[in-house]
């Protein structure tokens, strides 16, 4: 059952009863199983407000795109990819179009060797099928039962998830915030480093040094990542590549496709398959 952006009450939208966030969190945190799962379908543009879990969570969508925020980090997550969200990390989720989410919850004491920081991950075909099986498992299960073996295999798969480049770190420096906010409002803005140097009254080397220190990227790399992650959202809702390329500041659709493939390993037309 989907979770309401209203923390206190259930909500009915388009015939779907959406459970309150408070109720959903209590239900998840009260589970005694080492590994459990949930299947939730969300309407278009739904927002799950900032919250955290006592358990680790694998946030995974079989359909739709999620934009996940946690701290100073942002991830754009297409279908068949996921976000590993460690226990007690506050995060929020925005659904780009209708979303079919299948989450896993892992109690920290059951898997002490899991990643300690959030990250975007690739979901293998095996793990995807295991998740589908797990959502049919309800209530406590014996460790040596079929259900218990499924959940243990899920833990094995979670330990080897490869990290994906779907992350856009956000700076804390107020001067860089001005730059990054402007680029996210207008990703096609082609303003050069020299322009921002004059605007901020900072020399170009200082801006680059701050970008590397705060985001791990150069100015150009950060802008490129911001554009490509926004492109993922637009492709997911059916916009044409030619329109996306022009609006994001690329000289041609082929230039956009080339950069997309360089970053993500696949062309836009193959990325969502």
What's the gist of this structure?
With 273 residues, the protein is of the alpha+beta class.
What is the number of independent domains?
2
What is the level 1 CATH name of the largest domain? Mainly Beta
Taking all residues together, what is the mean pLDDT? 89
Reported CATH architecture of the largest domain: Sandwich
Count the E strands: 10
Could you describe the largest sheet, including whether it forms a barrel?
A: 8 strands, antiparallel
- Helicity range: 25-40%
CATH-derived topology of the largest domain: Jelly Rolls
Shape: elongated
Low-pLDDT parts are 1-11
Please work out how many helical segments DSSP would assign. Answer: 10
**Alpha-carbon distance between the two ends:** 26 Å
| Strand content bin | 15-25%
Topology as a string of helices (H) and strands (E): EEHEEEEEEEHHEHHHHHHH
Structure description:
By secondary structure, the chain is an alpha+beta fold. It folds into two domains: 11-158, Jelly Rolls (Sandwich), CATH 2.60.120.810; 170-271, Arc Repressor Mutant, subunit A (Orthogonal Bundle). The chain has ten helices and ten strands. The chain has helices at 21-29, 125-134, 146-158, 174-185, 193-200, 204-215, 219-236, 241-247, 253-264, 268-271, and strands at residues 11-13, 16-18, 35-42, 47-51, 56-70, 73-77, 81-85, 91-106, 119-122, 167-169. The strands form two sheets. Strands 3, 4, 5, 6, 7, 8, 9 and 10 form an eight-stranded antiparallel sheet that branches. Strands 1-2 form a two-stranded antiparallel sheet. The longest helix is centred in the C-terminal third of the chain and has 18 residues, at 219-236. The model is unreliable at 1-11 (pLDDT under 50).
